[in-house]
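Exam revision sheet. Question 4 asks you to relate a sequence to its structure. Input first:
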Amino acid sequence: MKKPAQGGGFWGALRRGGVPSAIASVMGAPTAQQMAFIRSLTREQRRSEVLRTPLERLETVVFDLETTGFSAQHGDEILSFGAIRVVGDTIMEKEQFYTLVNPRTVIPEHITELTGITREMTDKAPPLMNGLHDFMSFVGGRVLVAHASAHDKAFLNAALWKTSKVQLTHRVLDTMMLAKWLEPQQHQTYSLDELLTHQCILIEGRHHALEDAKMTAKLWVAYVQEMLKRNVTNLADIYAHLSHA
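Answer key, structure tokens:
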């Protein structure tokens, strides 16, 4: 199917959030408005000025997803989003986000055993578009942080393309990669559990998206503090070190 031309006309207005409400309602208003919002949010997220933001003031959202499996390319779907906001090395405890979403597919038994998420729970949950819209609203223009982020980025990209035909443009930092740079050859697997134990961070509620995000946030804060000790002052410095790690 040929992609609609960008710029003027109906699709241009949709991307700018300027579709008249009467027309939007015919299309299914919430979906049209959510699509327009997500598309607008993904524009110009890689602004160069954020690279120079002092690390003490860098605004991040540490997040985690629970999914029906491990391959977004082979039909696995998001089950839940969890996230928490961090500024510098301060976790904003009251600024948290969590939602289940309806994957509209079977949840394998081993995933239910791992996450505690059942079909009955997701049947009552909002659709992917609603959950994705609310998650992206919470993220805003902030830098994302996740552990072993390739998994989460793949699922976010699949969800963004499926719902809005866009790709994730936010900067994403990976606590696994940071650990390999800051603590080389000190760990066997660099798994979240191993790194949390090494940092004396209490492990509880594993494989719940919000609880994993909160524990990863504590790990991120520990690494921010370590980087500041090493005179790593901003995001550009982090990227420079990671490129040579």
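Marking note for examiners. Confidence is low (pLDDT under 50) at residues 1-29.
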